[in-house]
Amino acid sequence: MGLDALLVGAEKPRELGIALFGGDAAARRI
Amino acid sequence: MLRREGYSAAIAKFNGPDDTGAVIARAIAEKPRLIGLSVIFQFSAGDFLGLARQLRDAGSDAKIVIGGHFPSFEYEPLLLHHPAIDIVVRFEGEQTILDLLRALDSPATWSQIPGLAFRQDGSVHATPPCPLVADLDALPFPVRDGEIKRHRGVGDAALLGSRGCYHRCSFCSIGAFYHQPNGRPQRMRSVRNVVDEMELLQREYGVGLFIFNDDEFFDLADPRRPLAFADELESRGLKGKMFIKCRASDVDEPVFSRLKEVGLIRAYVGIETGAQPALEVFNKRLTVEQNRRAVTTLKKLDILADFKLLLFNPYTTLMDIEDNLRFIDDLAADGCVPITVARMEVYSGTPIMERLRAEGRLRGDYVAWDYEIEDPAAELVFRQMLAAMYRRNYDLEGLSKTAIQAYYDLLIYKHFYPKKYEPGIEDALRRIVAKLNRHTVGVIRRLLAYARTEDLCDVARVNKLTIELALETNRVDMELGERLRRWRLRLNRLVENAR
To answer: Within 13 Å, how many C-alpha atoms sit on residue B59's CB side?
Structure first.
């Protein structure tokens, strides 16, 4: 019998507090 | 929550495509009936969608469920364009995922479960949102399977003392996420329940640093809560350090002074901008004066005041940019914190997205919304800034992020090894960061000067200036990066000696 649920998530970078990301839209402009 | 109800559940980390192989290996070996993908940040949605596709290609026949802020709003295109995704759980997911597991093999009953979206007869069907969890104390503490990390001898853990936020900042997906379902948008755990979890984390895992990731640490309805929290920590003799996140209007000197006594060493403050018109666009319901006072108070108390500046929004003027530069000059030219400057990005579900759509200015698509700034001069400054300083401001290896990591290391050394603390190391870091901040301001001032007086359409001159500034920024970043590397070696030696 396998697992019922495997929950997958990203770790929050602890050092950064809140990181600002350009998102794809801003990066596409370069 | 699932385990308490008798289900077997495990957690896997997925920080990006590098973790794909490990997640797939677990999915194949452990054969879960359901794979839940938690997508909090819109920028990582593409990675998660890629993972879902590869899980399917690798032969997993689990129901693939996606949830979080972004999928809660964009469930329709996600389900229409991504066949690997079976189900979207919208808004807070604890109860919904439990109901779903009970009914996983009977899709005909899914329409009875609040908070779900799924494909049905070729179109997308969504049930009404599940009400928000009213009593957070009733939830079990988060599972910590192997999660506690140690950094320079100090164990740290992220935790939440509350959920949600009462405010409706126009750019923020948190306000949007918690205002749509029924229930109070901000809910607090009891002080006692939070400190119980902290005690457990310290006792079982040796945690010394508690990182509160609350959307908003302070309770609008109960200004005495932080003081009760401090009293509870003190009465139980719990010794630890804390990071919190809050609004500028929360920073009250007596309250923060008290929180400092019980371990507060860093506060991330949602300053967002040093320009009043931009605060209005963001619907922050704050004044620049409040922002200034918050940073000044934290500096006075020697609590790291961490903040970023959204220099650009759809309505930014050159005057707004100038106001922000003055804000940095006045508050961060001393290098007290590295300043990241960036553009407000458009998140799904937010009031600003609806405003841009109504104005016919929303570009891009649900994976990455985009816009152009109304004032072409400000749009030009943004594009040039991006080209000249992308790595510095946005890249994870860029200087503004490596510098804030250095501050993190400094705080660990300063507050966990106080007996061996050498203050000179802080001054050295400040000097590096001061130069970084001043340079950022200088570059943007030169862009502003051009945008104010010169021909915006003279492509050759615009490009020449941008390239000049990019090369100069690169030189400065190389120099400061090297100084930061040597600073870190010095810190390593000091911490080694102190341990």
So the answer is: 6
- Substitution target from A1, A4, A18, A29 for chain B, most B beta carbons within 10 A: A4
Q: How far is CA B349 from CA A18, B175, B177, B214, B366, in A?
A: 20, 9, 8, 20, 10
Is residue B145 predicted with pLDDT exceeding 80? no
Give the span between the Cα atoms of B182 and B493, in whole angstroms: 54
**Residue B87 near residue B52, CB atoms below 8 Å:** no
Q: What is the 3-state secondary structure (H, E, C) of chain B?
A: CCCCCCCCEEEEECCCHHHHHHHHHHHHHHCCCEEEEECCCHHHHHHHHHHHHHHHHCCCCCEEEEECHHHHHCHHHHHHHCCCCCEEECCCCHHHHHHHHHCCCCHHHHHHCCCEEEEECCEEEECCCCCCCCCHHHCCCCCCCCCCEEECCEEEEEECCEECCCCCCCCCHHHHHHHCCCCCCCEECCHHHHHHHHHHHHHHHCEEEEEECCCCCCCCCCCCHHHHHHHHHHHHCCCCEEEEEECHHHCCHHHHHHHHHCCEEEEEECCECCCHHHHHHCCCCCCHHHHHHHHHHHHHCCCEEECCEEEECCCCCHHHHHHHHHHHHHHHCCCCCCCCEEECCCCCCCHHHHHHHHCCCCEEECCEEECCCCCHHHHHHHHHHHHHHHHHHHCCCCHHHHHHHHHHHHHHHHHHCHHHCCCHHHHHHHHHHHHHHHHHHHHHHHHHHHHHHCCCCCHHHHHHHHHHHHHHHHHHHHHHHHHHHHHHHHHHHHHHHHC
What is the model's pLDDT at position A1? Answer: 60
Smallest CA–CA distance, residue B268 to chain A, in Å, is: 7
Strand order of the β-sheet with B116-120 is: B9-13, A5-9, B34-38, B63-67, B87-89, B116-120, B123-126
> And the tokens for B169?
């900042």
Is B40 in Cβ contact with A10 (below 8 Å)?
Answer: yes
Phi, psi of B238 (to 5 degrees): -80, 120
pLDDT at residue B147 is higher than 80: no
Question: Which value does ipTM take for this structure?
Answer: 0.86
How far is the C-alpha of B329 from the C-alpha of B255, rounded, in Å?
A: 27
Q: Which of A12, A15, A26 sits opposite B213 (nearest CB)?
A: A12
Minimal Cβ distance to A23: which of B42, B97, B387: B42
Express each pLDDT in B324-348 by its tens digit. 999 999 999 999 999 999 999 999 9
Element (H, E) at A6: strand A5-9
Q: Rounded CA gap, B309 and B385, in Å?
A: 14
End-to-end CA distance of chain A: 50
Q: Is pLDDT of A28 > 60?
A: no
Separation in Å, CA of B364 to nearest CA in chain A: 7
